[in-house]
Write a structure and sequence with these properties.
The protein is α+β, with helices and mostly antiparallel strands. The chain folds into two domains: 148 residues, 2,3-Dihydroxybiphenyl 1,2-Dioxygenase, domain 1; 202 residues, 2,3-Dihydroxybiphenyl 1,2-Dioxygenase, domain 1, CATH 3.10.180.10. The protein is built from ten helices and 17 strands. The strands form two sheets. It has a nine-stranded mixed sheet. The protein is globular, with a radius of gyration of 20 Å. The N terminus is likely disordered. The structure holds fe (ii) ion (FE2).
């Protein structure tokens, strides 16, 4: 992959003189709208090792919705379900199934974030709003991105409570161990046919991101699946949003399958980082998390050569990686280990990626072909190729 070699982000250079009008401190939380938050929380605790963190619902005086907040190291996910048929959340679930509604970004000033983005053309989702309780105040604001997905800016510098006003600490007697997930490495959005550049421009113009890596359909194509992808990053490199659009192939693109079943654009996968992918994936597998099928022997036979080309030595035992189905990709700066789950809903929509970076800053483009062939085997079983 030619482009991969040029990945130094170049971000420092690009941003040296420009003032970042939307400084982002990190991902604050990811909120899913789901049909049954209680059962989803059990799944993410049991299978993915998330810890009980905060709660709101009938018991805290909220009669509209229930939200469970789960935490693992720096990752916070919120699982929200409506408590009656009148809530707008129902429409989201009817249309999309369970999926990501909010990608919340941690900022120093949620009011300025909203002003700077809306004046550059973002559609407002939530005007700057102050929420208070005895632990202080949080300011949140929000804008729409692709599909029904939104970015919420969270300013929590004057807040000492557990999560947000309205939530209480969630203590549970059921606390499965963490699986070693550390932080969100990147989050990928699938957008419609010919819409990738529109959304690239949105992230550039409205949010001040830069496009530092692109893959076209000649690079990411198998006999069947095809897609195009551009990776967007904010100024400090903490937030990375690759954007995919489908491309014509011999059969239906996996992105098109997603768009059909999600009934529009949305978050395709959440990549979470670990420091020990062998341990993390072994545990996830033992807890019932399903991964894409293991690549064939030829894939693993080719790995040593791919690493040698870049003068890297694999620290891990390749036979263990192979047994677990972990993929390996390399660039000039190092290598990375990654694996993809099957979709975590019945609709073939959102899935997770587990990633361990050993110096490499890419996204596994060298694995795309092997990965897509595995996805196509699953598509074939679902009869959606
Ligand atoms: Fe990824």
């Amino acid at each position: 992959m030619k482009d991969i070699k040029n990945v130094d982000y170049g971000l420092k250079k690009i941003f040296k003189d420009a003032k970042d009008f939307l400084p982002l401190l990190g991902t604050d939380y990811i909120e899913f709208y789901v049909g049954n938050a209680k059962q989803a929380a059990y799944y993410y605790k049991t299978a993915f090792g998330f810890q009980s963190y905060a709660y709101k619902g009938l018991e805290t005086g909220n009669r509209e919705l229930t939200s469970y907040v789960l935490k693992q190291d720096k990752i916070r996910i919120v699982l929200t379900t409506p408590l009656n048929s009148k809530s707008n959340i129902n429409q989201h679930i009817v249309k999309h199934g369970d999926g990501v509604k909010v990608i919340a970004l941690w900022v120093d000033d949620a009011t300025t974030s909203w002003e700077e983005t809306t004046k550059r053309g973002a559609k407002s989702y939530m005007k700057p709003t102050i929420e208070k309780d005895e632990f202080g105040q949080v300011v949140r604001s929000g804008i729409y991105t692709y599909g029904d997905t939104v970015h919420v800016f969270v300013e929590r510098k004057n807040y000492k409570g557990v999560f947000l006003p309205g939530f209480k600490k969630w203590k549970s007697d059921y606390n499965p161990d963490s699986v070693g997930l550390k932080y969100i490495d990147h989050m990928v959005g699938n957008v419609g046919w010919n819409e990738m550049n529109k959304w690239v421009k949105f992230y550039e113009d409205v949010m001040g991101f830069v496009n530092f890596l692109s893959f076209d359909d000649k690079q990411i194509t198998t006999d069947y699946s095809a897609l195009m992808s551009k990776v967007m990053s904010n100024g400090n490199g903490r937030i990375k949003f690759p954007i995919n659009e489908p491309a014509e192939g011999k059969k239906k693109s996996q992105i098109e399958e997603y768009l059909d079943f999600y009934e529009g654009p949305g978050a395709q996968h959440i990549a979470v980082a670990t420091n020990d992918i062998v341990s993390t994936v072994s545990t996830l597998r033992s807890r019932g998390v399903e991964f894409l099928s293991i690549p064939p022997d030829e894939y693993y036979n080719a790995v040593p050569l791919r690493l040698e080309q870049h003068n890297h030595k694999l620290n891990e035992d390749i036979n263990i990686l192979k047994k677990l189905g972990i993929l390996i990709d390399a660039d000039e700066e190092g290598y990375l280990l990654q694996i993809f789950t099957k979709p975590v809903e019945d609709r073939p929509t959102l899935f997770f990626e587990i990633i361990q970076r050993m110096g490499a800053k890419g996204f596994g483009a060298g694995n795309f072909k092997a990965l897509f062939e595995a996805i196509e085997r699953e598509q074939a079983k679902r009869g959606t190729l």
